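User: Quick one: structure for sequence A, then sequence B.

Assistant: Sequence A:
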Amino acid sequence: MAPLNIKQGSTQHSAYDLRDPNSDVIEQHTLALVVDNESGVLARVIGLFSGRGYNIDSLTVAEVDHTGHRSRITIVTRGTPAVIEQIKAQLARLVPVHEVHDLTVEGPSVQRELALFKVSGKGEARIEALRLAEIFRAKVVDSTLESFVFEITGTPEKIDALADLMRPLGLREMARTGVAALSRGI
């Protein structure tokens, strides 16, 4: 009997997998786009999402090729497998889009996010906030007698975990950059 050939990112399943491949399971995907760095491109990409009712969980944009005038847009979105495929196909058809990569299905990737937390407190709460920051490898980037601003870099889950622990200690404000991601390897 010939071995079952399953490509990474394929929707084929093992004969023993009884799940419906057309199910309505919502998945989170990280998409990386290379686009022309010109006015209106981001609006066109975002317009595709808003016009069809797709949500964006995270969005980062920056120029990555100064001579070629190209930018990289990293989008984290959710949807059924069919919706994710539709999003990728529609993005690939936009004229200023040169590449569309689904980092979730293309193999291992590295994802990081930067966040700033403003935590106010006195006494024991202040000491506990410093202790937690040290455990999570967050840096103090600003300090007053009544508050700290911590900087943390990590996965979105790591940032969420620190935020959950800092809330009862006096988390007052948070700013997040959104996910930056690259595929691993060559």
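Sequence B:
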Amino acid sequence: MDKSNVVPWLFVISHGRFGNELVNSCEMILGKIENIYCFSLMPGMAPEQLMKEMSEVLKRAPTHSIIFTDIYAGTPSNVATVFAKRKGFPVICGMNLPMLIEAEMYRNELNIEELVNRIIEAGGESIKNVTSIANGNTYE
């Protein structure tokens, strides 16, 4: 099977259960999401243990699957970088709910470069100073 034409899988890696809850919230909005996998770095867990837990699933993942992490240069991000180098998966740090929604809505339609750009754009555009907007101030 040519894995390059398969819809990319989504991987969510976070400190604690943040990623799991983010996916739960995404599914509350969109319904059940197929081929999304969460991995949690729990207190006292070594990076090697996280890497081991991820290895088997990532081995089966289609080319260009996407890895989301919570904080750039944190342990989940550093572990994801190892897989990015080995498998060429894009890694997107600073994940938020709009990013996951965008990924799920468009991963069947866009090529990987367009999808990654759209995800990052959605994440940035979702950050607003609502108080400023509510007070009629221009927001840029």
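Strands lie at 10-15, 36-41, 66-69, 91-93. Residues 9-127 form a domain with the Rossmann fold fold (CATH 3.40.50.510).

User: Thanks, that's what I needed.
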